[in-house]
């Protein structure tokens, strides 16, 4: 029939298909039939099967009276292809090319985790580690494996996969530390139904960064694509860590633990990676989605964001303490909570008493306790309740260890070792319910332990040392010092920031932090002595007891340095006494050294020559430029300077009359 309107052509175009006209005409602005074979619908797709399916859908969308179209086009060709073409692995759901692409993405990430003993080169059948090159003499190997539990479900529901790598590494590395071992290398296992390279690379990138933070090499791993085993979008993770410890340094030292020893708790970052099945059940009962504003945590965070806070990695913090010999035992508070993990490192005849009012409990635990009506015993058996790890130390060592930890992490004396009474649990947690209900009212950490009697456990407030910071620029080291001083456990209080240049970013950072600022422009003074005298008067005005030079680009006079001797700290981007003066990074590269770093030292009249307080080594990589090396040294500075600030402000480090520490 001629002259009937043809409908649905715009819909076909929207489907991305081509329409070729034959027996059609335009009439009054509409497309009408003009007899014969009216039109064809053509589809171009990656395969004949999908092209045929799309063309048929397009033909079905065209509508006019009497319209018919052939439905048998291409079927014999498809049947022929299916009969003669051999199956591939990809036909079964496993994409080898995608797996290879993932390896190419993660290869440089793994390489960045190289350390003495291992170059972290992926691609071999197995990974190698040289214990002798790592400096071990009589080592015992220590291994651990773990996953992240149903925290995976939260990450997958939120589409936020970046933090799981740190969770995985932390769970394994923190376990290996319990034997006193240094984590050496890590392997991961990633399994899924269909490999999403974007998701997998995000997860493995997080693993690599966490390995770097933990000081272990990402030596290898396995990506398993298993169609039919996992639902779309689901995957699972497992990690494996191998460490080593000199035989004489193995923990726990059960024979040394005795009644009266003290327990030091290290702060957790939140739920860590245990108890998420219970967390999800509480959320389900409360009708709370992961995207909802969190009734716990910061006001700008969603429920999912708080729950996905990565697990703390304790290796770099704890290894120096463990090697000092002061720690008799270490317990990682994972599945089983406080009640089941601490007894694993105690002699059978001993128990512990904890006081929950001594540490800060994150709000998420208070909410879970109240909303889920989770009992006190269940809370302490399932969750860490704010304590990610526990150290057992002698009372005489408690203050020194606590101070050393508090430089980088909140830590508290949380209890003591007691004789185990018949019928009494190995772990008793006092004041937990009260502390959960009174979140924020627990000890802020602004306490110090002083030895008193046999228990050495008297708690007294401590006075903070008043600190002035001198800057000349952006204030990156200033920011690190301010963050340290904000910790409730810090012994330092920054009371003024002085710049010799007006309008620099560091002044703005200080003002935003609520710290008084002053500008003493060196260009306005006729002599260095006059300039230094003005700075000295400002410091005196604010009652400053300790001065930190954080990127202060002026040489101070001998008079100023002598007055502030023992109270004046500077940081230099090399391992002094090497590479003094300007362009230290360039000097290191030109010298061809394999290791450089940063040094925090007391200021002496000779430039870069005062007594050394803290140093941190930074490896020089092949292909390093001044810029890349400077970036890594700057990261080390942001750790070393706050550490030195705490050591001096707490009185742990003093400058002697002989100019030595």
Automatic annotation (TrEMBL):
<keyword id="KW-0658">Purine biosynthesis</keyword>
<keyword id="KW-0464">Manganese</keyword>
<protein>
    <submittedName>
        <fullName>Phosphoribosylglycinamide formyltransferase, phosphoribosylglycinamide synthetase, phosphoribosylaminoimidazole synthetase</fullName>
    </submittedName>
</protein>
<dbReference type="InterPro" id="IPR036477">
    <property type="entry name" value="Formyl_transf_N_sf"/>
</dbReference>
<comment type="pathway">
    <text>Purine metabolism; IMP biosynthesis via de novo pathway; N(2)-formyl-N(1)-(5-phospho-D-ribosyl)glycinamide from N(1)-(5-phospho-D-ribosyl)glycinamide (10-formyl THF route): step 1/1.</text>
</comment>
<keyword id="KW-0547">Nucleotide-binding</keyword>
<dbReference type="GO" id="GO:0004637">
    <property type="term" value="F:phosphoribosylamine-glycine ligase activity"/>
</dbReference>
<dbReference type="InterPro" id="IPR011054">
    <property type="entry name" value="Rudment_hybrid_motif"/>
</dbReference>
<dbReference type="InterPro" id="IPR020560">
    <property type="entry name" value="PRibGlycinamide_synth_C-dom"/>
</dbReference>
<dbReference type="GO" id="GO:0004644">
    <property type="term" value="F:phosphoribosylglycinamide formyltransferase activity"/>
</dbReference>
<dbReference type="Pfam" id="PF02843">
    <property type="entry name" value="GARS_C"/>
</dbReference>
<dbReference type="InterPro" id="IPR036676">
    <property type="entry name" value="PurM-like_C_sf"/>
</dbReference>
<dbReference type="GO" id="GO:0005829">
    <property type="term" value="C:cytosol"/>
</dbReference>
<dbReference type="GO" id="GO:0006189">
    <property type="term" value="P:'de novo' IMP biosynthetic process"/>
</dbReference>
<dbReference type="GO" id="GO:0046084">
    <property type="term" value="P:adenine biosynthetic process"/>
</dbReference>
<dbReference type="InterPro" id="IPR002376">
    <property type="entry name" value="Formyl_transf_N"/>
</dbReference>
<keyword id="KW-0808">Transferase</keyword>
<feature type="domain" description="Phosphoribosylglycinamide synthetase C-domain">
    <location>
        <begin position="1"/>
        <end position="78"/>
    </location>
</feature>
<dbReference type="GO" id="GO:0004641">
    <property type="term" value="F:phosphoribosylformylglycinamidine cyclo-ligase activity"/>
</dbReference>
<dbReference type="InterPro" id="IPR016188">
    <property type="entry name" value="PurM-like_N"/>
</dbReference>
<dbReference type="InterPro" id="IPR036921">
    <property type="entry name" value="PurM-like_N_sf"/>
</dbReference>
<comment type="pathway">
    <text>Purine metabolism; IMP biosynthesis via de novo pathway; 5-amino-1-(5-phospho-D-ribosyl)imidazole from N(2)-formyl-N(1)-(5-phospho-D-ribosyl)glycinamide: step 2/2.</text>
</comment>
<dbReference type="InterPro" id="IPR010918">
    <property type="entry name" value="PurM-like_C_dom"/>
</dbReference>
<dbReference type="InterPro" id="IPR004733">
    <property type="entry name" value="PurM_cligase"/>
</dbReference>
<keyword id="KW-0067">ATP-binding</keyword>
<keyword id="KW-0436">Ligase</keyword>
<dbReference type="InterPro" id="IPR037123">
    <property type="entry name" value="PRibGlycinamide_synth_C_sf"/>
</dbReference>
<comment type="subunit">
    <text>Homodimer.</text>
</comment>
<dbReference type="InterPro" id="IPR004607">
    <property type="entry name" value="GART"/>
</dbReference>
<dbReference type="GO" id="GO:0005524">
    <property type="term" value="F:ATP binding"/>
</dbReference>
<dbReference type="Pfam" id="PF02769">
    <property type="entry name" value="AIRS_C"/>
</dbReference>
<dbReference type="Pfam" id="PF00551">
    <property type="entry name" value="Formyl_trans_N"/>
</dbReference>
<dbReference type="Pfam" id="PF00586">
    <property type="entry name" value="AIRS"/>
</dbReference>
<dbReference type="InterPro" id="IPR001555">
    <property type="entry name" value="GART_AS"/>
</dbReference>
């Amino acid at each position: 029939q001629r002259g009937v309107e043809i409908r649905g052509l715009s819909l076909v175009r929207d489907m991305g298909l081509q329409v070729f006209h034959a027996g059609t005409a335009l009439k009054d602005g509409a497309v009408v039939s003009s007899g014969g074979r009216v039109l064809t619908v053509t589809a171009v797709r990656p395969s004949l099967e999908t092209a045929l399916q799309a063309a048929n859908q397009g033909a079905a969308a065209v509508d006019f009276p009497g319209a018919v179209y052939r439905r048998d086009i291409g079927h014999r060709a498809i049947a022929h292809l299916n009969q003669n073409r051999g199956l591939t692995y990809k036909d079964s759901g496993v994409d080898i090319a995608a797996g290879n692409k993932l390896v190419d993405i993660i290869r440089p990430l793994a390489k960045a985790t190289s350390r003495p003993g291992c170059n972290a080169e992926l691609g071999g059948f197995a990974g190698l580690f040289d214990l002798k090159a790592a400096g071990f003499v009589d080592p015992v190997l220590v291994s651990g494996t773990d996953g992240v539990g149903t925290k995976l479900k939260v990450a997958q529901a939120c589409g936020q996969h970046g933090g799981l790598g740190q969770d995985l590494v932390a769970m394994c590395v923190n376990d290996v530390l319990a034997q006193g071992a240094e984590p050496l290398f890590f392997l991961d296992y990633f399994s899924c139904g269909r490999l999403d390279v974007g998701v997998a690379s995000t997860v493995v990138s997080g693993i690599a960064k966490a390995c770097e933070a933990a000081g272990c090499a990402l030596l290898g791993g396995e990506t398993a694509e298993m169609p039919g085993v996992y639902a779309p979008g689901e995957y699972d993770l497992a990690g494996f860590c191998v460490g080593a410890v000199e035989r004489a340094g193995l923990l726990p030292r059960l024979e040394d633990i005795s009644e009266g020893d003290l327990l030091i708790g290290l702060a957790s970052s939140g739920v860590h990676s245990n108890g998420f099945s219970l967390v999800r059940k509480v959320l389900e009962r409360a009708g709370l989605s992961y995207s909802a504003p969190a009734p716990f945590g910061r006001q700008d965070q969603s429920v999912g964001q708080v729950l996905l806070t990565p697990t703390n990695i304790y290796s770099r913090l704890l290894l120096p303490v463990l090697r000092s010999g002061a720690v008799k035992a270490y317990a990682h508070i994972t599945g089983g909570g406080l009640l089941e993990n601490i007894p694993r490192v105690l002699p059978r005849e001993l128990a512990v008493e904890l006081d929950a009012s001594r540490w800060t409990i994150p709000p998420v635990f208070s909410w879970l306790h109240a909303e889920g009506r989770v009992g006190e015993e269940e809370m302490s058996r399932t969750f860490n309740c704010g304590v990610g790890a526990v150290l057992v130390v002698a009372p005489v060592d408690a203050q020194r260890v606590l101070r050393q930890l508090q430089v980088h992490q909140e830590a508290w004396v949380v209890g003591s070792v007691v004789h185990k009474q018949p019928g009494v649990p190995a772990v008793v947690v006092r004041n937990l319910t009260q502390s959960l209900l009174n979140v924020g009212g627990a000890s802020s950490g602004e306490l110090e332990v002083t030895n008193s009697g046999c228990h050495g456990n008297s708690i007294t407030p401590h006075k903070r040392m008043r600190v002035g910071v001198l800057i000349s620029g952006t204030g990156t080291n200033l920011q690190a010092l301010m963050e340290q001083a904000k910790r409730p456990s810090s012994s330092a209080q920054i009371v003024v920031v002085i710049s010799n240049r007006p309008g620099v970013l560091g002044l703005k950072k200080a003002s935003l932090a609520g710290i008084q600022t002053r500008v003493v422009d060196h260009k306005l003074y006729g002599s260095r002595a006059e300039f230094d005298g003005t700075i000295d008067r400002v410091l005196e005005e604010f009652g400053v007891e300790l001065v930190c030079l954080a990127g202060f680009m002026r040489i101070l006079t001998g008079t100023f340095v002598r007055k502030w001797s023992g109270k004046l700290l500077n940081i230099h981007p090399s391992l002094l006494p090497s590479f003094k003066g300007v362009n230290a990074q360039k000097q290191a590269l030109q010298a061809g050294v394999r290791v450089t770093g940063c040094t925090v030292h007391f200021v002496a009249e000779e430039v870069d020559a005062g007594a050394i307080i803290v140093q941190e080594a930074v490896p020089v990589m092949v292909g390093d430029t001044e810029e890349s090396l400077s970036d890594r040294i700057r990261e080390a500075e942001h750790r070393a300077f706050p550490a030195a600030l705490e050591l001096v402000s707490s009185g742990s480090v003093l400058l002697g009359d002989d100019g030595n520490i």
